[in-house]
Specification:
By secondary structure, the protein is an all-alpha fold. The protein has helices at 2-27, 29-38, 42-55, 63-79, 87-104, 107-126, 130-162, 172-189, 200-210, 214-219, 227-256, 260-273, 282-304. α11 (227-256) runs antiparallel to α12 (260-273).
């Protein structure tokens, strides 16, 4: 199943690259013509990166969810090399996943990818000799440089928003701060039983109106953008601890059975849930339940063997 998942993600990436090439030829041919006449500059790469990331995903899927799928496929590919036995093809697939995640510039996905790449690089360096370490570090620096170039603009915007975090204006970081502020106020007003799952949007909308967060009201999105806060608002303290306990139990099982893959995968889901209602949507809950079940099943079979 993991092989099918990894290969299908790779084929989707190839299809998106083909669609992107068609997009530039049909919609941005003036850019191609200008580049041929004036030559390639740094602005050329910036233009391609910007429009490539904005138009890469063909399907009606948020870039975070697509990035999560690619990150999961990359993780499975690293921990289970039998998925693709040909080393060259395995490296091509892995680099494709890395490049697309950087291209889509989902900030949380990039930060998780960088953390995973640091872990992988450390493990590789620890087991390698001096000459091979030079190659590993060179590849790591090259990948980090590529990621920095593709994502620097989006992260710069977040840094700039930190200075205006209390202002009532748009921006993904500011918006999440506003959602969190409203959520914590609601939790403070009903800390024991919450408001019920069906009333979360209504209560959030009331708080947005009270705090005069007009931009979020115009967007018409009233989700707290945090799975843990959302659970607390809807189910109170009991629901929150039950939901939190699910992660604790999986982490505990992975730790005692030394299942590093399950530990990292669950950790990624845990972090994403802190900035997105990830498990409240089918695109999030279905793959997570499937792969946690699959990783637990494989773990059980390994222990029996």
């Amino acid at each position: 199943m993991m092989r099918i998942f990894v290969i299908s993600n790779f084929l989707i990436c190839l299809y998106c690259f083909a669609h992107l090439a068609h997009f530039f030829i049909t919609e941005k041919f003036y850019f191609i013509d200008r580049t041929i006449n004036e030559g390639i500059t740094l602005e050329t790469f910036h233009y391609i990166a910007y429009h490539g990331g904005a138009n890469f995903v063909v399907f009606d899927v948020h870039r975070l969810y697509f990035s999560f799928s690619l990150l999961s496929a990359f993780l499975f590919l690293y921990f289970n090399k039998d998925i693709l036995k040909n080393r060259v093809f395995r490296y091509i697939v892995a680099f494709t996943f890395i490049f697309v995640i950087f291209l889509l510039v989902s900030k949380i996905a990039i930060m998780l990818l960088v953390a995973l790449l640091c872990y992988i690089t450390y493990q590789k360096l620890r087991k390698s000799k001096a000459k091979k370490r030079m190659i590993i570090m060179s590849v790591f620096i090259l990948i980090m440089s590529l990621g920095f170039y593709l994502a620097k603009t989006r992260f710069r915007q977040s840094i700039e928003q930190m200075g205006a975090i209390n202002e009532k204006k748009e921006g993904s970081l500011i918006e999440r701060f506003q959602y969190t502020k409203c959520s914590l106020e609601l939790i403070g007003e009903a800390p024991v039983f919450g408001y019920g799952i069906g009333d979360i949007n209504t209560k959030m909308k009331e708080k947005l109106i009270k705090n005069d967060f007009t931009f979020l009201l115009h967007k018409g999105v009233y989700d707290p953008h945090n799975e843990f806060l959302k659970t607390y608002i809807g189910s109170g303290v009991i629901g929150f601890f039950l939901f939190f306990g699910i992660f604790i139990s999986i982490f505990r099982r992975a730790y005692y059975n030394q299942n590093i893959l399950l530990m990292i995968y669950t950790g990624i889901v845990f972090i994403v849930c802190m900035i997105e209602p990830f498990l409240s949507r089918q695109a999030g809950i279905l793959p997570v339940l499937f792969f946690i079940g699959l990783l637990t099943y494989n773990e059980k079979n390994t222990l029996l063997a």
